[in-house]
Amino acid sequence: MKKQICAIFTIIMLSTLFILNEGLLAQQNEGFEVINVSDASKLIDENNNNQEFVILDVRTDEEYKSGHIANSMNIDYKSSDFKDQVGKLDKNKTYLTYCRSGRRSTGASKTMKELGFENIIMIEGGMIAWGNAGLPVSQDN
């Protein structure tokens, strides 16, 4: 009986890992890259004065005002005119997207890809992961 329980538990764990991995692969295959906060922080530093690099926060205005990544712009993914606002952006630039946890930035990145944006990178785990890593949060703007 113990062997059967262990076997079932192992199958469940392996299936869960497979499903999670497939989810990440699906995001990468949607046409945008997913990176961790450490890599995102390095990328931001490397592009500090690059006008072709845009940090895009897709949370609500209230969330943005409570703390965001420095030099980011804010377009609320849940706003009714998100597509219109994003559609006005230069599709040739590189966009680093983030939200609170990664759910909205996934949707925003997919929408941007559908609108013809080519260079989209999403921060895995969003501001939760950013804060947990002790990275700086700005309250300017």
Describe the fold and architecture:
The protein has 141 residues and is an alpha/beta fold. The chain has 2 domains: 30 residues; 101 residues, Oxidized Rhodanese, domain 1 (3-Layer(aba) Sandwich). The chain is built from 6 helices and 5 strands, in the order αβαβαβαβαβα. A 5-stranded parallel beta sheet has the order 1-5-4-2-3. The longest helix is centred in the first third of the chain and has 28 residues. The chain is globular. About 6% of the residues have low confidence.
Question: Helix and strand layout, with pairings?
Answer:
Blueprint: H1 2-29, E1 33-35, H2 37-46, E2 53-57, H3 61-66, E3 72-74, H4 82-87, E4 94-98, H5 103-114, E5 119-123, H6 126-132
Parallel strand pairs: 1-5, 2-3, 2-4, 4-5
Overview in brief:
The chain has helices at residues 2-29, 37-46, 61-66, 82-87, 103-114, 126-132, and strands at residues 33-35, 53-57, 72-74, 94-98, 119-123.
* Share of β-strand residues: 5-15%
Give the number of DSSP strands.
Answer: 5
- Corresponding CATH superfamily of the largest domain: Rhodanese-like domain
Our measurement of the CA-to-CA distance between the termini, rounded to an integer number of angstroms, reads 61 Å
The CATH architecture of the largest domain can be named as 3-Layer(aba) Sandwich
Secondary structure: helix percent: 40-55%
Q: What is the element string, with H for helices and E for strands?
A: HEHEHEHEHEH
Report mean pLDDT, rounded to a whole number: 87
Shape: globular
Number of helices: 6
The gyration radius over C-alpha positions equals 18 Å
Poorly predicted ranges: 15-23
Total domains? 2
- Multimer state: single chain
CATH topology of the largest domain: Oxidized Rhodanese, domain 1
CATH class membership of the largest domain: Alpha Beta
Q: Which sheet architecture does the biggest sheet show?
A: 5 strands, parallel
